[in-house]
Prior knowledge:
Elements: E1 4-7, H1 9-16, E2 29-31, E3 63-64, E4 68-72, E5 75-79, E6 83-86, E7 92-102, E8 112-124, E9 129-132, E10 139-141
Antiparallel strand pairs: 1-8, 2-3, 2-7, 4-5, 5-10, 6-9, 7-8
Amino acid sequence: MQAAYNKFEQFVNDLIHARHDLRATGDTVKQYLSNTVPSASGDLIKADLAEITAENGYTAGGDDTQNDTTKSGGTSNMTAVDITVTASGGTIGPFQYLPHYNDTQASPVDPLICWFDRGSSLTLNDGESHTTDYGSSFFSIT
């Protein structure tokens, strides 16, 4: 399933004010799971957007994307490794949204970057997995 990319509006302002260092040697970007509809303009930090319960193989705070950046001409890309969450000992979810935030930034704490919308809620049963496949680029800035 191809999930739709959406950015939080505050992320653009945060980039201009140098609040994110998305290189591998910089800040840690994490993906977490949510079943609450994100608000592009209203959600600013992770605490604004509810996370699902951490249990059965899902870790509170989510997973490190191992983010890095590449540049080609006037285009910069953020890259990430694929993230797989597997239910073990019970279910995970339901969740529909995959928000991403900067786990390193302290002021403001845990600013939101973007989210992917799966299009419908998913509950992982024991032994089932969900993989976020970032492909060759998480997102691009031109």
